[in-house]
Amino acid sequence: MLWNTLLLAVRAIRRNLMRSFLTILGIVIGVAAVITMVTLGNGATQSISDQISRMGSNILMVIPGQRFGPGAASAPKFKSSDVDAIKGQIFSAKWVAPVANSQATAVFQANNWSTTVTGSNNDFFPAGNWELASGRDFSETEMRSGKAVCVMGETVREKLFGKQNPVGSKIRLKQFSCEVIGLLKSKGQSGMGHDQDDSIIMPLKTVQRRLTGDKDINRITVSARNSDAINTVKNQLELLLRERRNVSANEDDNFRVMDTRQITETLTGTTKILTMLLGSVAAVSLLVGGIGIMNIMLVSVTERTREIGIRLAIGALEREVLLQFLIEAVVLSSIGGLIGLAIATGASVAIAKLIAVPYIFSPGINLLAFIFSAAIGVIFGFFPARRAAKLNPIDALRHE
Amino acid sequence: MNEFPLIKLSRITKTYGQGQAAFLALKGVDLSIDQGEFVAIMGPSGSGKSTAMNILGCLDIPSSGSYRFQGTPVEEMDRNQRALLRRHFLGFVFQGFNLLPRTSALENVELPLIYRGEKASVRHAEARTALGKVGLTGWEDHTPAELSGGQQQRVAIARALVTRPKVLLADEPTGNLDTQTSEEIMELIGSLNREHGITVLMVTHESDMAAYAKRIVHFVDGKVDHDRQNGEQS
C-alpha cells in the first residue's frame, strides 16, 4: 500500500511541477541557510583553534584587563620592566616575549604594503614557533639601542620583493628606513582572513620609539620549560604581576594569564555564539518554509477537493488519502531538503574559500537538517492531509 | 444464480438536517435489482433520485431501512467497508466526467487498479484493454484537456470498467454531451450491459436516454412512483 501511495503522491507532484517547486522553495532556502551558516561557523572555529595550536606549545599569554576587546583598554599596559622581572624571577619560564603592535605601510621601490609591525625580542621566534628562512635575528646591540632593523614574514616579502631575497635591502616604514636582516619561514594562511605571515618583526624599542610613541606593551607571551611547569609559571606570573601592578588583596586581577586552552575558548567563544545565532535565524526560515508547505497543502486540498472525491468514490480508503497527502508533503519537503543540501555544500565551499576558513563537511548538521525538513513535511502535512481524508465523497464530487 | 437479488432496498428513508429544518428526501423506497439489469432512474429534480443513487452507490447511508448488497447489509458498514465495497464491486460514471486533470487517459484508467494494489504490468495491460473496449485505442497518452467531451466520458467509462465491477452507476452520463455523442455513449453503455453482463443503474431525466434501459424506475416526491419494463405502457 505504501508503494502505491507513494506512486500516487509522486504523480500528483508531477502534475503540478511549478507549484511544487514554489512550495519547496522555503525549505530549500531554510536548509541551505542552516547548513551553510553552521558549516562556515564550524570552519571559523576550527581555523582559530588551528591558529592557536600553531602558536607553539606550553604557551601562556598575558594580557592587560580581563579579556580581549573593549574594556581591556582601561587596564594599564605592561612595561619593559615587567618583562625583565618575569625573566629574572620566574625560572620555569623559558621564553618571555613582549609584544607591542602597530599598523604601518612598508615601501620598497615602487611597491607598498600595509602590514602589522610587531615589536618584540628574540624570544618571540621560538615562543611562536617561528623559524628563519634566511638571515638572522636581532643582536643585543640592536635591541638595546632600538635600531631600525626588521625580520619580515613571507607575505610581506612577496608583496614588496616578489621572489627576491630581501635580506640586506632597506625598506621604508613611515618616515624611517629599516634594514631587513631576516626572513621568516611561512606558516601559511590561518583562518578568518588572518594571515600570520603578513607581519614585520622589529626590536621592541624600535617600535615603541618610532611607531607607537609610548612605552606600552600590549601583551606578553611566556613559554614554560615543559608542560608540567605551565601551572607553576601561571601561578607565579599572577603573584608577580599583582604585586608589580599594585593590585590589593581584595581586588580582582587587572590582567589575565591564559593558557592555550583558555585562549582557544576565548577566541572561539565568539564564533561559536555567532554560529549558534546565525544557525537559529536560519532555522526560523526553515520553520517558515514548513508553514509555507502547510499553506500550499491546504490550498491544494481545497483546490483538489473534486479529485479527492473521485478517489474516495472509486474506493480509496480514508487512510490512503491521508497517507497520499502526507507523503506528498514529505516527498516535497525531502526533495527541498536535498536541494538545500546541495546548494549549501556549493555555497559553503565557495564562501569558505572566499573568507579563507577551512571547509569542514559535518555529516551531523547535514543529516539533522535533512531529517528536520522531512519532519516538517510530516508535521505541516498532517493537518491538510487529515482534512482531505475526512471529506465527504458526495460533497467533494459536487465541489466546483 | 445467487439466492439474493443483487441489490435490495427495503423501506429506505433519508433525512437531511434536523428538527424544524429536517427535510425528508426519501420516504420509504423499496427496490430490488437483479444481476444483469439495465435500470434507468427518472424523475423530476427534488424527487430523490440523486439521493437514491448516492445510497445505491454506497456513498451515503440511509437514515432508516435496509440495503442489502448481495445479501450483505450496507447500512451496518462503516466508511472504510463501504469504500472497499465500492472498490471491488462498483464503477462510477458522472455527469461531469470527473477525470483527474493534467493526467493521461491511461493513468486515469489505472487509478482504481492502484487502489486495488495491482502490479504495474497488470495495471497497464488492463487499462489498455479497458480503453480499447470504449474505442479509445491510441488516445492513452492524452490528457482530458486534449479530449472531446465524448472521449472524456469514454475514459470515465473505461475507468469504471477496468475493475470489472458488478454494477455500473451512471449519474446523468450524457448530461454534458450533445445528442449524437449522447447516443454513442448510450450505445456503449448498452453494449457493456448486453455483452459483459454488467448491471447498469443510470440516473437521467431525458426519456430518450432512458429508452436504452430495459427497466425504468420513476421517482416522485421521495418515493418510487412507478417501475416498469421498457416497452410497457405506464
Could you characterize the architecture of this molecule?
The complex is a heterodimer of chains A (400) and B (234). Chain A has helices at 2-15, 17-53, 80-89, 124-127, 140-145, 154-161, 204-212, 230-244, 260-303, 305-313, 318-354, 363-389, 393-398; strands at 59-64, 93-108, 111-120, 132-135, 149-152, 170-173, 176-184, 199-203, 219-224, 255-259. Chain A is 56% helix and 17% strand. Chain A has two domains: 2-50 and 267-398, no CATH class; 76-253, no CATH class. Chain A is α+β, with helices and mostly antiparallel strands and 400 residues long. In chain A, a hairpin with a 2-residue loop joins strand 2 and strand 3 (111-120). In chain A, helix 1 (2-15) packs across helix 11, helix 2 (17-53) runs antiparallel to helix 12 and helix 9 runs parallel beside helix 12 (363-389). Chain A has 13 helices and ten strands. A six-stranded mixed beta barrel of chain A has the order 2-3-8-5-7-6. Chain B has 234 residues and is α/β, with parallel strands linked by helices. Chain B has one domain: Rossmann fold (3-Layer(aba) Sandwich), CATH 3.40.50. Chain B contains seven helices and ten strands. Chain B has helices at residues 49-56, 79-89, 105-116, 120-133, 149-161, 179-196, 207-210; strands at 7-16, 23-33, 38-42, 64-69, 72-73, 90-93, 167-171, 199-203, 215-220, 223-229. In chain B, the strands form two sheets. A six-stranded mixed sheet of chain B has the order 6-7-8-3-9-10, sandwiched between helices. Chain B has a four-stranded antiparallel sheet with strand order 2-1-4-5, covered by helices on one side. In chain B, helix 5 (149-161) runs parallel beside helix 6 (179-196). The longest helix of chain B has 18 residues, at 179-196. The model of chain B has no long low-confidence stretch (mean pLDDT 92).
Biggest interface between chains: A-B, 24 and 30 residues
Reading the helices and strands of chain B in chain order gives EEEHEEHEHHHEHEHEE
**Total strands of chain A:** 10
Terminal Cα separation of chain B, in Å? Answer: 30 Å
- What spatial form of chain A do the alpha-carbon principal axes imply? elongated
What oligomeric state is this?
A: heterodimer
Shape of chain B: globular
Quantity of strands of chain B, as a count: 10
The biggest sheet of chain B, with number of strands, parallel, antiparallel or mixed sense and barrel status, is: 6 strands, mixed
Low-confidence stretches of chain B: none
Spans of chain A of at least 5 consecutive residues whose pLDDT stays below 50 are none
Order of helices and strands of chain A: HHEHEEHEHEHEEEHEHEHHHHH
CATH topology of chain B: Rossmann fold
CATH structural class of chain B: Alpha Beta
